[in-house]
Design brief:
The protein has helices at 16-31, 48-59, 65-79, 90-100, 112-121, 146-155, 169-178, 191-197, 209-223; strands at 3-6, 103-107, 131-133, 162-166, 181-185, 201-203. The protein is α/β, with parallel strands linked by helices. Strands 3-2-1-4-5-6 form a 6-stranded parallel sheet, sandwiched between helices.
Length: 224
């Protein structure tokens, strides 16, 4: 385990409910379409363009995706002050890994503007990671492996020596396709869904810290 690659929404920050709330508000405001936040769930982890476009396709609504994304981000940034918190143990784990000399990177399909806002909300920043990789850095978002391949490349580590931490099945599939080991956190989807997508283990959150990850890695190696 030479590097840890973190998804962000649902892994470091408890943001999935708020971005869905912002998406629902955008559809109502711009297109007069009532959308239940649960309708976004199949598109979690794929980046905001697909997150919104997938719901629009399912509803048969023709949307201006760039305009819709801009408004969703505006609404999201209005929602998060005082509400957006860290996933239990996330901040502590990032700092523990840094202190232990283990390389870390974000690998989120979200745009950099959202990544920065999410990290700032929980007291983290660029200096806490060895690399920040986001949806702006690749053409193909999750479930394609590109984000995780790029994160490993920037760290100078083979993907096979990286551990991905994800909350969504599409992200697990991306990590597996990149050749990484994947651990799920069941903050957004049930453990069974993440295991089915390819996670070797699932944690409820990150409160176990580095010790918990090392225990999972040891079990994974012994099972091979």
């Amino acid at each position: 385990m030479k590097a840890i690659l973190f998804d962000v929404d649902g892994v470091l920050v408890d943001s999935e409910p708020m971005i869905a709330e912002a998406g629902s508000a955008m559809f109502a405001e711009l297109y007069g379409v009532p959308v239940n936040p649960a309708e976004f769930k199949p598109f979690i982890g794929t980046g905001e363009a697909r997150f919104l476009g997938g719901v629009a396709e399912a509803r048969g609504v023709d949307i201006d995706v760039p305009k819709a994304m801009r408004r969703v981000y505006e609404l999201y940034f209005e929602l998060i002050p005082g509400r957006l918190g860290a996933v239990p143990g996330a901040v502590e784990l990032v700092r523990e890994l840094r202190a232990a000399g283990i390389k870390t990177a974000t690998a989120t399909s979200a745009d950099r503007i959202k990544l920065d806002a999410n990290l700032e909300a929980i007291g983290l920043g660029e200096a806490d990671f060895d690399a920040l990789v986001c949806g702006n850095d690749v053409t193909r978002k999750k479930p394609f492996p590109d984000i995780y391949v790029e994160a490993a490349r920037r760290l100078g580590v083979d993907p096979a020596d990286c551990l991905v931490i994800e909350d969504a099945p599409e992200g697990i599939r991306a990590g597996k396709a990149a050749g990484c080991a994947c651990v799920g956190v069941s903050t957004t989807f049930p453990a069974a869904v993440l295991i089915e997508a390819g996670a070797s283990h699932v944690l409820p959150d990150l409160s176990g810290g580095l010790k918990a990850l090392e225990g999972l890695e040891s079990r994974r190696r012994n099972a091979r």
